TrEMBL record:
Keywords: Methyltransferase, S-adenosyl-L-methionine, Transferase. It comes from Janibacter indicus. It comes from the Bacteria. Coiled coil: none annotated. Belongs to the N(4)/N(6)-methyltransferase family. GO terms for biological process: methylation. Residues 101-344 form the DNA methylase N-4/N-6 domain. GO terms for molecular function: DNA binding; N-methyltransferase activity. The lineage of its organism: Bacteria, Bacillati, Actinomycetota, Actinomycetes, Micrococcales. InterPro entries: DNA_methylase_N4/N6, DNA_methylase_N6_adenine_CS, N4/N6-MTase_EcoPI_Mod-like, SAM-dependent_MTases_sf. This is DNA methyltransferase.
């Protein structure tokens, strides 16, 4: 007989605690999870006007603050369980945040039947993109056995969140009727039911459905728990003004009414009750922007009350289900240091654009370092060898391994019946031009020589597209190993069950050029043009046939219309991309076109002797990133 959820809860909590304990035990080990800084974003969106004061601020920042400085805010792409493990572990540039975060707010998905498809509007068409396969697997893990799976997902994450909270810290967990009452039991167990500060009811208005046979469901719950019996509560920041009638009653005297009101309370207003009536839509009071249109976006005033009431101006605050980025934007507007994460590429794009749009302070865009390695350890065991994984990749591609004496770390294979060599690169390193040259050497020397070579890679160096073009080798092909492959292996249980469904896609490729570099009276101007964008194989994107055909049409007619966001680093150091100019679809301050980016960047920069190494990064509407590096001669 199937156990009820109440009967399953003790084992779910125990399993969650064990999983969290294993992560905590590994924080000091050689294989601890790390974060890789993909971009240092210095917000400076393209517009028709140029603000010299903002430029001066950027130059000051550029000269005085090193990338990766521990006081920078952080937007992290990836599984929040791994992100939290990395934040707890810390690294050489960023100390551990264990016991350092004063406020955590989370708004996790809580409806198993929700539609998480993304609408992408392109010139002449609107397509519906399903979640990436990586997101889909995370979601199916969450709901595979209904609410029990959801609780198994959230349980270890809540344990790690408690480890991140400071002794005076609090967590606010935002849920609705689907799973809220069950998660409250987990919160009682992990944080202690004595530390429940409030069950906050957020009530909102909206139309119901015709023919309803019940009352409209028009509220969510936010469960507020503190870590201890000491917690931050800034009542002065969230008080509401008394009504004129109430003030009149206070002045007239309230003998026998039961109210005790001092002069401070009368002047400063009342502390709100734990039921809040706030509209879902509406304009934000801080930046004047409308909602960004994200499906699960929460209103600014709701989040602002939580941030202002539950943290101090010098606090670190965090949201591990970042969604639309409203929490990070509110934290930014209220002077808090923030960390936010999300597994969805569309979400991280929305957040990055939103933060640039409100002219946030410089922040880091990070990803899980060696994500595939972490997934491989999860799938193949903590003691997996790279050669074991290479064997699986070769099998999925249809290649047979070379004899041991000819094989290098088990990474070489051949396609049966052909003279084609296959090289499966390691997930723990970048595929670079050196990798490609080495593959060319293997092609010419192994087993008397092959006619062609195919390189299968996980992660690629900046400018790899340029490198491939420069090699100009028709007998060299470079393909991308699906980033979700290890999740799929874990689900299916073996390579043989996946062989017919795995697609190795071609690399996307961005073309750009430096159109000019000239001296000015007070510096120099750099002009950069986008030339072309080649999307990776549309078959690798999670679209149905109709939408795939629409994307193919845009690729043929106007490939640059697929660019969602692009940025320029005029002094690329080969390690951290320092984004000091950005443009994105929806930024209408430059050309009034919400569906296209500007194709020319004009940067006004301080003078620099010698040449410049310029890096251009583009992100397409599906979240795929490409880079091109351009060396520019000294100004004549």
């Amino acid at each position: 007989m199937t156990k009820s959820l109440l009967e399953q809860l003790p084992s779910i909590v125990a399993a969650g605690r064990r999983q969290a304990a294993q992560i905590l035990e590994g924080l000091e080990g050689r294989n601890r999870v790390t974060l890789q800084t993909r971009e240092l974003v210095v917000p400076a969106k393209d517009s028709n006007t140029f603000d010299l004061i903002k430029q001066a601020d950027r130059e000051q920042f550029d000269g005085q603050t090193a990338p990766g400085a521990s006081d920078l805010n952080r937007l992290i792409y990836g599984d929040n369980l791994l992100a939290m493990a990395a934040l707890l572990a810390g690294d050489d540039e960023n100390p551990s945040l264990r016991n350092k975060i004063d406020l955590i707010y989370i708004d996790p998905p809580f409806d198993s039947k929700a539609d998480y498809r993304t609408k992408v509007t392109l010139p002449g068409t609107t397509i519906s993109q399903k979640p990436t396969v990586m997101e889909q697997f995370a979601y199916t893990d969450t709901w595979s056995d209904g609410t029990a799976s959801y609780l198994a997902m959230i349980s270890p994450r809540l344990v790690l969140m408690r480890e991140l909270l400071s002794p005076k810290g609090s967590i606010f967990v935002h849920l609705d009727w689907h799973v809220g009452h069950y998660v409250k039991l987990l919160l009682d167990d992990i944080f202690g039911k004595q530390n429940l500060r409030n069950e906050i009811v957020w009530a909102y208005h909206g139309p119901g459905s015709p023919g309803m046979r019940q009352y409209n469901r028009k509220h969510d719950c936010v469960y507020w728990y503190s870590k201890s019996d000491e917690w931050i509560f800034n009542d002065s920041d969230i008080r509401e003004a008394h009504s004129d009638k109430t003030k009149g009653n206070f002045k007239a005297g309230l003998a026998g009414s039961g109210f005790i009101v001092d002069d401070y309370e009368l002047a400063e207003g009342k502390i709100p009750e734990d039921w809040w009536v706030m509209a879902i839509a509406g304009r934000y009071p801080v930046d004047g922007k409308k909602r960004v249109g994200y499906a699960t976006e929460k209103p600014w005033p709701l989040i602002e009350r939580i941030v202002r009431g539950g943290s101090n101006p010098d606090s670190i605050v965090a949201d591990f289900f970042g969604g639309s980025g409203v929490f990070a934007a509110v934290a930014e507007a209220n002077g808090r240091r923030w960390v936010t994460t999300d597994l969805g590429k569309p979400s991280t794009m929305v957040m990055r654009k939103r933060l640039i749009d409100i002219e946030a302070k410089p922040f880091l865009y990070q990803a899980i370092g060696d994500y595939q390695v972490e997934q491989a350890r999860s799938t193949l065991g903590r003691s997996f060898r790279v050669g074991d994984l290479a064997k699986v990749i070769l099998e999925l591609f249809g290649a047979l391994p070379l004899p041991p004496e000819e094989n290098v770390n088990g990474s070489l294979g051949r396609l049966p019946g052909t003279r084609t060599l296959v090289v499966a690169d390691s997930p723990s390193k970048l595929t670079t031009i050196s990798t490609l040259r080495r593959a060319q050497g293997y092609r010419d020397s192994k087993m008397g020589g092959f006619d062609r070579v195919v390189v299968l890679g996980w992660n690629f160096s900046a400018g790899i597209g340029q490198d491939i073009a420069a090699l100009d080798d028709d007998q060299l092909e470079v393909l991308v190993i699906p980033p979700d492959l290890l999740d799929r292996l874990k689900k299916k249980g073996g390579a043989e069950k996946l062989a017919s469904s795995v697609r190795f896609a071609s690399l996307q490729y961005l073309e750009a050029r430096v159109a000019g570099r000239k001296k000015l009276a007070d510096g120099e101007e750099l002009s950069v043009d986008l030339i072309n964008y080649v999307l990776l194989s549309p078959e690798a994107i999670n679209l149905d046939e109709k939408n795939r055909a629409s994307v193919q049409q845009v690729m043929n007619d106007e490939p640059l219309a697929l660019i969602e966001y692009w940025a320029v680093d005029p002094d690329y150091d080969g390690e951290v991309f320092r984004s000091v100019w950005q443009d994105y679809r929806g930024n209408t301050e430059n050309d009034g076109d919400p569906l296209r980016v500007a194709t020319t960047a004009r940067l006004q920069l301080p003078n620099k002797a010698g040449g410049r190494r310029v890096c251009v990064r583009g992100v397409d509407v599906f979240g795929f990133e490409s880079e091109v590096v351009i060396d520019v001669a000294e100004v004549a």
